[in-house]
Specification:
By secondary structure, the chain is an all-alpha fold. The chain has 9 helices and no strands. It is elongated.
Length: 205
């Protein structure tokens, strides 16, 4: 219908960000095979024609989903905690808090599974994991000086962050969250000589 001014009113399109958000949710639920234009359109309550107003095709959406995962789960978090400042151990704890949600975990694991059979995704995952490891090295380096210890703690902290959701073993006397917290606190402990000074002990000479 033409309005009084003789112009056809524009039809509001589903924002690009909603397609990406729906795609991320689908990826978390069922991996990349679950990211289908028809299914996403039905979920959003729109026709799939609106999709092609934003994207050239499904591969373009998948690429943007990976961009959003990388931004949301790595670059944005690192930038945020760097801006907040604080000691290395405090900053690592803050990152752990920001990345502890089930949504974060499901998306991250879906990308890892995807990378096993898609070389370009594997290359991106390697870059992201290298960025995360570099961040951990930098944070542990704020209160440790031994390069070997920095590397060991960085690897163990990263492995704990990824693997904690898979733990099904019992922890006598502790719940799983309590046991994970113990492991995290152990990794973030100060150097041995500082522990001795804090407890009134005699540091090693």
């Amino acid at each position: 219908m033409i309005n009084g001014g003789g112009r056809i009113p524009a039809v509001a399109r589903t924002p690009r960000s909603r397609w990406v958000e729906a795609g991320l949710a689908a990826l978390a639920r069922g991996g990349p095979d679950a990211v289908r234009v028809e299914a996403l359109a039905a979920e959003l309550g729109v026709t799939k024609g609106g999709f092609y107003g934003h994207f050239d095709g499904r591969p373009a959406l998948l690429e943007e989903i990976l961009d959003e995962w990388e931004r949301r789960c790595t670059r944005e978090i690192i930038a945020r905690v760097d801006a907040e400042g604080g000691a290395g151990a405090e900053t690592i704890r803050r990152v752990a808090q920001l990345t502890s949600s089930e949504d974060f975990h499901r998306i991250d694991i879906a990308v890892r599974s995807w990378a096993r059979h898609d070389p370009p995704v594997a290359a991106r995952l390697r870059r992201v994991d290298n960025e995360r490891m570099d961040f951990l090295r930098r944070m542990f380096g704020r209160f440790l000086t031994d390069p070997a210890e920095i590397e060991a703690r960085s690897i163990l902290a990263f492995a704990l962050a990824i693997g904690r959701h898979y733990f099904i073993a019992d922890h006598p006397g502790y719940t799983t969250p309590e046991a994970i917290e113990l492991a995290g606190n152990h990794l973030l402990r100060p150097p041995a000589h500082e522990e001795g000074q804090a407890s009134g002990g005699i540091p090693d000479r």
